[in-house]
Amino acid sequence: MTKQKSILITGCSSGIGLCCAHELKNRGYRVFATTRKAEDAAKIEAQGLESLVLDLASSESINAAVDELLKRTNNHLYALFNNGAFGQPGAVEDLKRHVLTEQFEANVFGTQELTNRIIPIMRQQGYGRIIYNGSLLGIVSLPFRGAYNASKYALEGLADTLRLELYGSGIEVSIIEPGPITSAFRKNAYIKYQQNIDKDHSFFKVNYEGMEARLKKKGPAAPFTLAPEAVYKKLEHALESAHPRAHYYVTFPTHLFGTLKRLLPAKGLDWVLRKVSKEENQTER
Ligand SMILES: NC(=O)c1ccc[n+]([C@@H]2O[C@H](COP(=O)([O-])OP(=O)(O)OC[C@H]3O[C@@H](n4cnc5c(N)ncnc54)[C@H](OP(=O)(O)O)[C@@H]3O)[C@@H](O)[C@H]2O)c1
Question: Which domains does the chain show, CATH number per domain?
Answer without folding.
Answer: 6-274 (3.40.50.720)
